Amino acid sequence: MRSTSALEVLVVGGGIVGLATARALLAAGHRPVVLDQGPIPSPLAASFDRHRAIRVTYGGERGYARMALEAFAAWERLFADLGSRHLVETGQVVLGPDEDPWIAGSLADLEALGVPFERLAPAELVRRFPHLRAEAGEAGAFWVPRAAGALLADRIVLGLARFLRERGVPLLEGRRVVGLDPERARVRLADGGSEQGDALLIAAGAWLPRLLPHLSTRLLPSRQCVLYVRAPADLEPAWRDGPLLTHKDAGRGILFYALPAVGGAPAKLGDHRFTAEGDPDDERSAQEAEIAAIRALARETLAEADAYQLLEPRICFYTVSPDERFVAVAEGRMLAVSACSGHGFKFGALLGERIAAALSGELSTAALASWLAGADGRAGQGGP
């Protein structure tokens, strides 16, 4: 049943999902209150990064590919509110053999959704993108000129926090939640206090399993390392104007990605394989083995890889599900959402709109959960 009056919604977690949902709730006439154990936005949150990828290639997961296309329009609505556009459209180069299921599925999705792409021979790959190794494209390469780019993540979450504060939304920092009462939409705080609302959203990222231990087998904190780097001088122009890069070859154990140096951010290198271990409150210095693993993948993909200067290794924590799908669980007047698994940020603006619709009763939680899980088709757009 849809709410006919304004709701006070407690939002636990001041990352992209919590802040974007608060924006959407405010637009719908509700009263969000955001709580976080640290500052808002928190530099420890997975969403507080210099840039994050947005892409439509999804390995045959057409539900998520469709969501990614829809996400572009949602980001434009959010940027209109912020008064600044924090998306750099770069296109995407994908490397990997056609027989790799992820590559084959991505190509099928692009064709089905009408997103143009172009096959690239090794010589053409290097001519256009001289920072890549021709050998990396020998198994296969294609270029997706649109529907891909880099979201300037830290600017987005900082802008959202400023937007909400300017409109009087309480952003309660340093409020660590230690207990939940879903039936009364109430939270208990570490300092002995409590907060209560009409509805409760848990969007606590890697800390969510700690608040809801019964979900700890479905949602695992995962320690991940990324490297910010500077390319050799002769390759810097290719990185400034270059594409989002994905190299996928399961046969050779490669799952490498790179974001170009755009919007003032340096180039970023990473490995999409999850550790599915670690504690988000642990010390976050990168280990030599973590750095070496990404450098080894870079040698398979990048020209002059050993000449890249390491500017900063960075550790972040995702919450991952075994199948990498997003999860929504409703209990009483509480909705818990984990939209991470390393690929959630690109949907942030759209997720906020859909989650707000579910909290206000305009969308059933079952439809939301199906949509979040990447169900093919357009589940989640209808009513309850």
What can you tell me about this protein's structure?
The strands form four sheets. An eight-stranded mixed β-sheet has the order 6-7-5-15-16-17-14-18. A six-stranded mixed β-sheet has the order 9-2-1-13-20-19. It has ten helices and 20 strands. Helix 1 runs parallel beside helix 5, helix 1 packs across helix 9 (348-359) and helix 2 (62-82) crosses helix 9 (348-359). With 384 residues, it is of the alpha+beta class. 50% of the residues are buried. The model is unreliable at 377-384 (pLDDT under 50). It has helices spanning 16-27, 62-82, 101-113, 122-128, 153-166, 208-211, 236-240, 288-301, 348-359, 365-372; strands at residues 8-12, 31-35, 52-55, 87-89, 92-95, 118-119, 141-144, 148-151, 171-172, 177-181, 186-189, 194-196, 199-202, 220-230, 244-249, 254-259, 267-271, 309-320, 327-331, 334-338. Helices cover 29% and strands 26% of the residues. It has one domain: D-Amino Acid Oxidase, Chain A, domain 2 (2-Layer Sandwich).
Q: Report the structural category.
A: alpha+beta
What ranges have pLDDT less than 50 throughout 5 or more consecutive residues? 377-384
Helix fraction, binned, reads 25-40%
Please give the number of β-strands.
20
Oligomeric state of this protein: single chain
Q: C-alpha Rg, in Å?
A: 21 Å
Shape: globular
Mean pLDDT: 94
Q: How can the largest sheet be summarized? A: 8 strands, mixed
